[in-house]
Design brief:
single chain; alpha/beta; binds flavin mononucleotide; binds iron/sulfur cluster
Length: 373
């Protein structure tokens, strides 16, 4: 049986254990996405906790790809210097670091566009949350975006990151192209699944050409959009097989988006019992059984018992967590030291608040306890 605390490698990505910190926007960069001292301190604290690989929050690859405030940008070479500081702070105690790159497409927030610009989408279908209608991207726009992904991956490699993760989940840019709910194009990028996959295929090819075969390229993929006409589990298996053939190095399996019913969002609350934990593990298993690629499961993992069970039952090769590390960056080291108490995070979702003010995400429960002292 595989164990959480064994060393592994995915190509040149060295992992001191089988844990990932799932990509987590943290509200730590400046208004144009440049890394700040706050960001460097934030990743230094995470790096001290014994996590196998830390995946950064989503980094926008074009100025009109931003969604949340103080999101990290990766759209210009002048950002390499800050990204280098961020990578070395995250890596200083032995964790590896991976940059997640994204364009939010229809879900980008034009209020955050500091240089103007239009919202882009595969098709002119209004965003479920804002109601805003994007411009249907031209083929030139598509080419520009693919180049932006490839350049973002190059910057990460130059900055000392150990890998790149494409954000292909949660209803953002790549998953909008994959999903018939957002992609109703009549050209080579829309139609059947093979055509909807073309944008991702070309992005992978451009990224690979830029970073070479040895640099790990991962993806976070939605196994189910939970919306009418959206990606189904069966389609996600086909996508995973294609990705594996096209040279992806690992797939982190998630699902849902803010367009899905709230109880099916990727970030869920009320994970109080063991049976509520690891809510996407069955999708991870499905993909692990059908595609020849390491699989990471994310979503509501809170206890060592659940992790051991995931490995014993063969649901995934790796586990990934987000909110537990907001409250306890040192959770993995704590478990390793023999304290098997489950993560202290109560999954309330309160960690966003300070991030939205540009102060970095932090645990609301701890903040309130401190202010009551
Ligand atoms: C504050 C916050 C920011 C997040 N930002 C991202 C992100 O940038 N990219 C991403 O793929 N997922 C993001 N997520 C989702 C997490 O990576 C993860 O999929 C989800 O929270 C479920 O895992 P958990 O139960 O361990 O928190 C974010 C979640 C939270 C709570
Ligand atoms: S505020 Fe604290 S307890 Fe609530 S989800 Fe965030 S880390 Fe967990």
């Amino acid at each position: 049986m595989i164990s959480l605390f064994e060393k592994t490698a995915i190509k040149s990505l060295l992992l001191s254990n089988r844990s990932f910190r799932s990509a987590t926007w943290s509200g730590i960069s400046d208004k144009k996405g440049y890394v700040t001292d706050l960001g460097v301190e934030f990743y230094s604290a995470l790096g001290a906790g014994g996590i196998g690989a830390i995946i950064t929050g989503y980094q926008y690859v074009m100025k009109n790809g931003i969604q949340l405030p103080y999101m990290t940008g990766n759209y210009d070479d002048s950002q390499i210097e800050g990204l280098t500081r961020l990578a070395s702070s995250a890596k200083q105690f032995g964790s590896s670091v991976i940059g997640q790159i994204a364009h939010c497409g229809v879900r980008a927030n034009p209020k955050m566009f500091f240089d103007g610009g239009e919202i882009w989408g595969p098709s002119a279908i209004p965003d479920a949350a804002s109601g805003l209608v994007p411009k249907e991207m031209s083929k030139n726009d598509v080419r520009e975006l693919i180049e932006a992904y490839a350049n973002a991956a190059r910057r990460l490699k130059t900055a000392g990151f150990d890998g790149v993760q494409l954000h292909g989940a949660h209803g953002y840019g790549i998953s909008q192209f994959l999903s018939a709910a957002w992609n109703q194009r009549g050209d080579s990028y829309g139609g059947n699944l093979k055509k909807r996959y073309l944008f991702l295929a070309e992005t992978m090819e451009a990224v690979r050409a830029m970073v070479g075969n040895e640099f790990p390229v991962l993806i976070k993929l939605s196994a189910n959009d939970f919306v009418d006409g959206g990606i189904t589990p069966e389609e996600s298996v086909q996508i995973a097989r294609r990705l594996s053939d096209d040279g992806i190095d690992a797939i982190e399996v998630s699902a849902g988006s803010s367009a899905s019913p709230k109880n099916l969002w990727p970030i869920r609350s009320k994970i109080n019992e063991r049976e509520n934990e690891a809510y996407f593990r069955d999708y991870a298993l499905m993909i692990r059984q059908s595609a020849n690629v390491p699989v990471i499961t994310v979503g509501g993992i809170r206890s060592l018992e659940t992790i051991e069970d995931i490995f014993e039952s063969g649901h995934a090769d790796y586990i990934s967590m987000s909110r537990p590390f907001v409250r306890e960056p040192g959770l993995i080291d704590r478990w390793k030291s023999g304290d098997r108490t489950k993560a202290a995070c109560i999954s309330c979702g309160g960690c966003f608040e300070t991030g939205l003010k540009g102060q970095g995400i932090s645990c609301k429960v701890d903040r309130e306890a401190q202010s009551n002292r």
